[in-house]
Amino acid sequence: GALKTSIGHLEGAAGIAGFIKLVLVLQHRSAPPNLRLKQLNPHLDIEGFPVVFPTEAVALGGMGGASGTSSLRHRKLIGGVSSFGFGGANAHVVVEEGDGTAVLTDSTATREASGSPTVKWNRLSFPFSRLSHPLVGRVRKETEDERVYETAVRRDVHQLIEGHRVMGKVLMPGAGFIELMGAHASLGSESETVGAQDKVSLGPVCLSRVEIEQPLMLPPSDSAEFASVRNVTIRVSVSAENEVIVASRHGLPGEELEGREDEWAVHSRATFEDLSEGGSSTGAMFEKEQEDLSALRTRFEEVREFDPKEYYAAAARLGFGYGPRFQTLAKLWRGGEEGKESLSCLRLRAFSERRGAALQGKESDCSNEGDCESMKVEEVDRAFRVHPALLDGAFQTAATSLLAGERSPRVMVPSGVQKAVLGSLEGEEEVWAHVCTVSTSSALCAFDVRLFSPTGRVVAEVFGLQMRPIDLSRAAPIPRELLWEVRWKAQASSAQQADMKESESSSVSPSVAGHSDVEAVRVDRPLLFLCAPAEDVEEIARLHPGSKVVAASGGKGTGEGMGGLPKEQAELVELLSGTAWAEVLYLGSLTADPMCRQDVSEGRDLGESVPCHSDTDSESVSAAAAVEGATVALECIRVLQALGCEEWPKETARPRVRFVTAGAHQIPELEGEGN
After folding, report:
1. Catalytic residue among 106, 133, 158, 164
2. Residue 392 is a catalytic residue
3. 4-100: what fold?
4. Residue 495: is it exposed, middle or buried by C-beta count within 10 angstroms (0-12/13-18/19+)?
């Protein structure tokens, strides 16, 4: 019979309403009447066609029922329902009667307790087209030099990121930035102002020199800020030079804020190469890469005492709040030289809005396998190239060595990647991660990561993953007048220096224990020397009486950094503004290990990783030098931020600051001219 005679036409819901009616018909073995049907349309020719149009309830025969033939009473009924959509989508569903005793549930505990035959759902998604990438929006601006995409953080994306909290703050994971930049790097070159998210290629893409400059924080959905703040918009600019930059601000995509570009907070940047174009040999090799999982596991020993629930509880005590979708670490193995390698099995945990506590990053009630089965994987989880939770699980695997190997573990998060090659998971919900520890220190840890499917297909490789202690304090803006640039100039030859007049060379110029290439400055006020080499402190104080010398706290090659600045910004501001300094000279780079400067002069990255299975002295020195060089750069930034912070006394002039380097640098254009 037709359900429309009872409830009318429900348009988009008509098909499911008819399906529900059919299930009820089979359950009660009775067909309801077509209401208000008195006479058939005379144009309907049903002669010889075995059909009944009931005008009253018709019993279809049942187990022990009084109606129907004897053979019908004990046979299962089969019914069908058709749906003809306005848009041309036609469907027909065939349903068979059940035996009436099965328990329809997803819970393992319920199935075992019922003692009855049960039905376990095997939910699959069959989209008519590839799902849109959730982090790619529309093109908002396009020039010859760059293309700019903007997208509001969708509700389902916000729910996903809420499962990643650090020190109570909802943060976009480092793996999310890598996925975000990789998706935009794989977009085609054709201009698409609408539907660009559907153009994301699944071919391999290579990101280089990935930098995560500052975290992207979102308001928790249970906070007052979430109710009051406007949408958060992510902007991704892709330049003609293959550079991708990620920024964000409050507001809607395309919203004009009086042209104020400083409203955008830059979070990450990288250079990229689309390996799927132009017959790239690197891309072809990556797509053919296979990992022999069986052979690989023979090199590792399973950490049997590893309990994911205990691990995530320990992570929560440390400051990491992982929701169920980011609790991907299922099993762990250790191996390699000195246990520096790890192997893990990662599974994408399902999600449900009913799990309110888990959504807030609190301890999940999904520890029971049966509970997890009742949760479903959302469509947004299937729309990524490499799901951020799975890639983050590989990074968590790296962090397990830090949690297990230290008495006082630190909260460290990804801050950069030397190189990342990304493929696509193609909807797979289980992957394996092979992680190699390259170097560790209190200021910087480096790892190499490889992600592959259960069949061995390599889907991602991350080289030189850098993890640093996180600082969630608001960064002080640097005034534009304090933005500096490096300008190289030719160094005078020895003969030219000898010809300089004695009076000019002795005009009270700040000298630093043999480093006399600093431009002369007439000093009538004291100088402030920051992070001076310990062995040179007395000599500097002798040459500049009345000046203040702050010694560096570290030592060469320690890998512990060249600290010396006050830890708190307020103390650093007080040091810089408390006295009318003639100049401030930062000498931290004179303390850094020469190996670091050699790396820079030879064109190598500070974070360049070393081979996974090597343990040579030179590699250890290079790793320590990389830490020292990075610490120097961070301290220089801290000095600039202190000069430009809001806490700087309004009536106090800012002193001139010099960052002193050591050694000569060959400039190709000036070679042969005595440089």
Report:
1. 164
2. yes
3. Peroxisomal Thiolase; Chain A, domain 1 (3.40.47)
4. exposed
Q: What is the second-level CATH architecture of the domain 138-278? A: Roll (3.10)
From 274, 371, 392, 599, the catalytic residue? 392
Q: Amino acid identity of 80?
A: G
What residue segments make up the domains of the chain, in order of their start?
4-100, 138-278, 286-469, 480-670
| Amino acid, res. 328 | T
In angstroms, rounded to a whole number, what is the distance separating the alpha carbons of residues 184 and 199? 10
Give me 460's structure tokens. Answer: 């991602």
Q: Enter the DSSP assignment of 332.
A: E
The answer to whether 265 and 247 have CB atoms below 8 angstroms apart is: yes
Cα separation values, 527 from 530, 548, 636, 650, 660, Å:
10, 6, 17, 21, 14
**Known active-site residue 499:** no
103 three-state secondary structure: strand
Handedness of CA 658, 664, 667, 673 (dihedral sign): positive
**Mean per-residue pLDDT for 536-556?**
82
**Closest to 470 in 3D by CA, of 171, 266, 259:** 171
| Backbone φ, ψ for residue 208 (5° rounding) | -125, 155
The pTM score is: 0.58
Three-state SS across 149-210? EEEECCHHHHHHHCCEEECCEEECCHHHHHHHHHHHHCCCCCCCCCCHHHHCCCCCEEEEEE
Specify the CATH number of the domain 286-469.
3.10.129.120
Work out the burial of residue 56: count CB atoms within 10 Å of its CB; fewer than 13 is exposed, 13-18 middle, 19 or more buried.
Answer: exposed
Q: Which tokens sit at 548? A: 């203040």
Find where tokens 């702050």 sit.
550
Decide if pLDDT at 479 tops 80: no
**194 Cβ contact partners less than 8 Å away, ≥ 6 residues apart:** 138
Does 4-100 match 138-278 in CATH topology? no
Per residue in 561-582, pLDDT (tens digit) is 346 788 888 889 999 998 989 8
Helix (H, G, I), strand (E, B) or coil at 675: coil
Compute φ and ψ for 61, nearest 5 degrees: 85, 140
Strand runs labelled E in 593-649? none
Residue 248 CB contacts under 8 Å (≥ 6 apart), including other chains: 216, 232, 233, 234, 235, 264, 265, 267
Cβ–Cβ < 8 Å for 321, 168 = yes
SS3 category, 666: coil
Which uninterrupted H or E stretch holds 419? strand 412-422
Average pLDDT over residues 47-69: 71
d(CA 449, CA 459) in angstroms, rounded, equals: 11
Length of the chain: 675
Specify whether the backbone of 585 is left (phi greater than 0), alpha (psi in -120 to 50) or beta: beta
